[in-house]
Each structure stands twice: as C-alpha cells, then as structure tokens.
Give the backbone structure.
Amino acid sequence: MEFNVNDFLQSFVSIVWEAFPFVVLGALIAGILEEVVPQQAISKIIPKNTILAVGIGSCLGLIFPMCECGIVPVMRRLLRKGLPLGTCVAYMLAGPVINPIVISSTWVAFQKHGIGPEMVGLRTGMAFVVAFIAASIVQFFYNRDGNKLLTRSAMPQNDNPFNLPGLDSPQVHPSEIRAGEKRPLSRRLFNISETALHDFKDIMVFLSLGAVLASFAKMYLNAKMIQEISTGFPAGTILGMMILSIIMCLCSEADAFVAASFKTMAPSAKLSFLVLGPMFDLKLLLMFTRVFRRKTILIIVISVFIQVFVYSLAVHYLWDSLFGDVAGTTSVEL
C-alpha cells in the first residue's frame, strides 16, 4: 500500500480536531481545581475505605462528564490535590463511558438495531467492572510502591490528607499550597490561566504524537483487514475490534455510531470496541506518560486489555440465552 500524504494529514487533523475542545475544557477545569479547591476538601469527600473510594471514582463521570482526552489533565490535578491514585484511575477509565452524554449516544446509536438498552447496560456495566478491578490493582501496587508509580508532575503535594505511602512529594509553588485561600479575583484568574495553559501545552504535545502514530497505523491497517484476520472465530473478531479501537482513537461521545455501523458483526465484538477504546488508545498511551511511570501504564494496559477480552468473549457465548439471536460475524459494513 502506498503512503498517501493527503490521507495521512486528513486522519491526523481529524484526530487532533476531535480531541482539541476536550483538551481545552480539561485544562481549564484542571486550572480551576488547582486554584479553587482546597486540598482538605478532597479528604472530606472521598472515603478512606479503598473499595468505596475506587467505586466512587468509577461513577464520577455521572457528575463530572469528561471525554477521555480532557480527563487526563483533570486527573493529574486531582492527584496533586491528594485524591487516591485508585480513585483517579477508576475515574480516568470509567468516566469517558459512564456519563450521561455517552450513555445517551450509545442508546441512540443502537436503538435502531433493536438493542439500545442491552448495549447501554453491557457497556456501562463492563466499563464499571473493568475500571474498578484495574484501579484496585493499581492502588494495591501504589500502597506498596507509593509515588514511584507517578511522574514528578503528578505526585501529591506535601500536605497529603490521606497519608499515602511513597517518595517525598516534589517542591511546589507557594500558590499551589495556598489553593483555596482568599485572593483577589484578578490573581485567581491569572493562576487559573497559567495552570490551564501549562497543562494544555503539556498534553497537546503528546496528543499530537499519538495522532501521528495513529494516522500511520490507520494507513496500513483498516477495518477490512481486521475483518479478514478475525473472520471465522469469535475470539479473533473480538481481538480485531479491540485493535481497531486502539488505532482509530475515536472520541467516546461518537464511537457508538461507528460501532453500530458494523452492521453484521456480533454485539460482543462491538462491545469490546466500545469499552476498550475510551480507556486507552494510541494517543492516550502517550498522554499517560505525563502522569504515570512505565510500570503503572503497563499495569493499566494489561489489566484492562485482558478484562475486556475475557468479558466480551463471555458475552458472546451468553448473548443467546440473555437477549436472543447473535448477529452474524462474517462481514463488515462501514
């Protein structure tokens, strides 16, 4: 296959353009969190019990709906405020799926196929379980290794209300320590803008690099090629759709319509596409490097990938008994 510059640029621009407004929104929210929310307030909201804290994190998207691109800078600022790592990871993984906007778009996309409620229930339910277990695993390692799992820019500030184990926190600017205190509105707006601009530049660099990799991959690996590889057995079809979700780098608010367009593919394969994509893809993997060390990223990726594959395969074999006939798995229509 020849390299087509126009196709590459079109793919690159579409990925960046789709993610851009959400990165801006995420950076702005991160700036507001850094300036306005006192660190002590976090400790009052989140329970000390790890299971409850991770469970709450998995459902935060219902209150603070965010796209997967915008959620990364927000999560990093919450970590700086002392929110437990497990809670932040649960929010990062589940938030782009378990939120009112994505739930509605999934319902609309599959309603005309007669499986709207089923896909909404399976997508949100699987996303919650995957995020909860993956975040619990990360929290287990964090309890053992502490801040060595985080980059320096994401480590909690010195005054940590949770007394989490780990390395000493990095030195921070005095304005960060005094977050929440009374200051002139002009100074607050300046601090919010400064923090938002810093996060925006930091994240956009890695978003752009991820978009370049995704655009190259999409040039040589398309939906029909995935279909050819996976035709004939459900495990291959599910793996093919999971790979496609990593490559395509779709926004979680629009991916349901793309998945629904695979009209004759099994619902289980579509489900794997819808759950895995918002949790990690090529652009997100590079964005994660601004928050997590390599070990943390590997823990997240491996635990999420294995869970999505196993659960989707289970859904494939249980679909008949739960909902009726399984859709065909032999052709793709885009």
About this structure: Residues 18-323 form one domain. Residues 66 and 96 are 6 Å apart (CA to CA). The chain has 15 helices and no strands. The chain has one domain: 18-323.
